[in-house]
Specification:
The chain has 196 residues and is an all-alpha fold. The protein is built from 9 helices and no strands.
């Protein structure tokens, strides 16, 4: 049941929910709590997790499952429907494999001094969010992956604009503009935003 001022979820939005959630506010709260638990899990492991572990498709899916598994039945499972973002569903596995192959090259360049840790992590986060492999939560998931990857390379986690990137507003608008520039191979704005 919704209260005045709350945005109700339609039936399509409610499909796949594990919880009795009826409003956008309830969904945001449930996802926030689930993600907070995943962040605790990840931060405990961040000291021992290797770059090689992070750059495994099964681990990336598991992280998404940990982030959203308390809320959505499909958490950690690639989407099966076309969305307005990302590649067609039948290309997701191939695109993710390509993203991981690019990451291997970027890690080699980092190890030889040709790229910074920030550049590797931001490029990878952008590459995987562009695939849009899951039905929801791709942005938050890719940013957490970027954080864990940059930490595995010896740098502090990103700040990602120091604001709320889920709720519409200036911080989210700046992030989306930086992503669009990155889509055009201009990573400068996204790299700056990640450390802003």
């Amino acid at each position: 049941m919704t209260s005045p001022g709350q945005t109700p979820l339609d039936e399509e939005e409610r499909a796949g929910l594990k919880l009795a959630i009826y409003t956008r506010e309830e969904l945001d709260r449930a996802e926030f709590e689930s993600i907070a638990n995943a962040e605790i899990w990840a931060s405990v492991r961040s000291r021992s997790i290797s770059t090689k572990q992070i750059l495994r498709e099964a681990w990336l899916k598991d992280l998404h499952g940990r982030m959203y598994g308390a809320v959505w039945v499909w958490a950690g499972t690639y989407r099966r429907r076309q969305t307005n973002l990302g590649c067609p569903p039948f290309e997701i596995s191939t695109q993710m494999a390509d993203s991981l192959a690019y990451a291997d090259v970027w890690i080699s360049q980092f190890r030889s001094g040709g790229m910074t840790a920030d550049e590797v992590a931001v490029r990878f986060a952008h590459k995987i969010v562009s695939v849009h492999p899951f039905s929801n939560g791709n942005g938050r998931w890719s940013r957490m992956v970027g954080d864990l990857l940059v930490m595995s390379l010896g740098q502090p986690r990103f700040t990602w604009g120091r604001g709320d990137l889920v709720t519409p507003g200036d911080t989210r608008d700046n992030y989306l503009r930086a992503l669009k520039r990155a889509d055009l191979m201009d990573m400068g704005n996204l790299m700056a935003f990640a450390r802003e």
